[in-house]
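User: I'm putting together a small comparison set for a docking exercise, and I want a reference complex before I start. The sequence is below, and the ligand is NDP. Could you produce the 3D structure with the ligand included, as structure tokens?
Assistant: Of course. I'll restate your input first, then give the structure tokens for the complex.
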Amino acid sequence: MKKNIVILGSTGSIGRQALEVVGWHNSDLQVLGIAAQRNIDLLEEQAKTFGVPYVAVEDKDAALELEHRLQGSNTRCLAGTDGILELVRIPDVDLILIAVSGLGGLLPTLEAITHNKQIALANKETLVAGGSLVTEAALKKGIRIIPVDSEHSAIFQCLEDTADVEKLLITASGGPFREMPVDQLKKITPEMALRHPTWQMGDKITIDSATLMNKGLEIIEARWLFGIDYDRIEAVIHPQSIIHSLVAYKDGAVLAQLGWPDMRVPIQYAFFYPERKRNNLHPLDLVQVGQLSFETPDLGRFPCLRLAREAGKIGGTMTAVLNAANEVAVQAFLGHKIAFNAISELVDEVMNLHNLKTGKLDLDDILEADRWARECTRQLINQQSKK
Ligand code: NDP
Ligand code: MG
């Protein structure tokens, strides 16, 4: 029997690679739904190619246009956030890949859990902002979240009994500015930052990789996925991106997962877990790789990594604030409104201004902290541009 899947964010970097994986295994997988924000040209093409019965478009105007184009076809178009949630609730769906970018992943993830769907989670912002809420809900329902983020997929694959774990070691390529003199960092343009040395990804995560915020978000993501406290999660720079992460055990053994940097591997793993399927990807050739090297991250050069760890340790609404401030700052940087180093400065400032809420958080607490932090960051950016 085929596994029925839904892909949220099908037009993005992860979404497109996920559909490639579906194409390799079309006798085992059926796509029942796809969703995006507004790229209806690609959604329409994907719906046709994969015979998808439901598409959802977050932008309501774009949804209307697609609905018009799909008249007379076998594909139904759903609109807005409600449409995306409706897609998640389709009764026959077995697994949902959450590959939207930013906090847009939070509501669909919670909806998927409520409706007992298996989740393959690429979207780390969901766990950064709402980690306690999401993991508690999943635990209550007995739903296992299968990570797609390569580092977390690696840890998931290497993890035996968490009681025996000494440390999680999350590897980072170090991004394109690992060796740039610190005084040059403010001159970095979006075009320079979008050239990642080892991974091809969406714009937001590529900038996060250049500031190392991505690694900070991943530390928080790991804390929630694996229930390991922050003092036992370390980031290590590994420029070749061959080791995707490691688990150190109390007896001194360290287990690692290796492979070419290719997101289709963790995507396929999450689709078929616990089974492994053959594909046509090039096997890893260690002699061709030659050398694997490691360094300690430079926290002076990359303050975002420090800020994320701090936010994680503070807890409560602070990680939602970190995430929201970062999302707004990254968009402003991509729009040439602020300098590269202003991203970390803004996140720092917004965290300092935040009125923290701790204890048991509900969805409203998280959404309110997110809304406040976005507004605060925008105001700070406007004030700066007036100076
Ligand atoms: P992209 O920017 O390439 O794609 C984002 C996708 O999400 C697009 O399909 C976009 O639609 C859709 N989208 C954005 N916002 C919404 C929304 N509110 N509602 C519905 N759809 C939305 O991102 P990536 O694929 O690079 O990343 C996706 C997620 O996976 C991120 O959270 C990222 O951190 C994570 N991730 C990505 C990796 C990678 O290699 N790319 C690696 C590990 C994790 P549209 O095209 O219409 O704008
Ligand atoms: Mg990653």
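Residues 150-262+282-301 form one domain. The chain is about 50% helix and 15% strand.
User: Thanks, that's exactly what I needed.
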